[in-house]
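Hello, quick one for you while I still have it in my head. No rush at all, and the record is pasted right below.
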Amino acid sequence: MTQATLRRGALPAPGLMGTALSLAAYGAPVLPLRAGKVPFGNCPDCAGNTCGGRPNMKTAGPCRCPGVCHAWAAATTDPAVLTSPAWTAAWCRAVAVAYHPGGAGLTVVDLDNADAITWARTALPATRTVSTTRGEHWIYRGTMTSHNAVRPGVDIKSTMSYARYLGSGTGTLADLPDVVRALAVKEVPAVRPGPWSVSMAARSGGGRCPHRSPVFLERGIAMAEQRITAARSAIHATVYGVFLAVLSRHGRCGCLTDAHVARLFTAAQTKGETARHCMDAWNNARTTLGL
């Protein structure tokens, strides 16, 4: 569902497959939803996560299975795939069409009830709106990390997620505002420096710790943020490894401030880590290093 699709109005092609092909033609990766409005289950080769990752939504698509597999990662714009025998069988059993908002360059703010809609009308800029069974989808141009329950009755669906297609809706598509991005920035727990900031003996000549050099320390924190941001898989392991590297370099001399730690936690949470996972990884790294 691109901007052109959203402006176009009713889609001419009949049936779910026709709707899917029309959306795909405009660049929106689509997939069928089965009863319960959920994706089809994984194929036998991928059942139980035996294939190594995509079912847990931590690895970016597209799915390479011949059938409809791996939820959002199965979404495609390829008409040959959408009309293949395996997908045709799925369309015959499907009850709805879904799309990958992030793959279409969009973000959906999913408002599940009247209270959430009332909040959005006062807190968010107007944009293209689509009515849903329980509430509304507010659709913005731009992508971000998907998050559930950013506030009561409000989910964000963009990258690595799917949304049910419910028509073109009304209103003008607006750019993704900072206020929506801010909803996904979870509060970073306060980090007390005492347990891991260990004073070093005074250096001869009264010299101060070299890590406190603004350029040296800033470069190290920036590189750590970049490594987390660039991770495409194994996010938990990457975050732990980065925390371990930062603490091994700067954890014994009192260089790190709460602001530095907050930057690392924010980078990790932007990749989908929870505040609890961040704190656990930080504490595990401290334990490993004996801090």
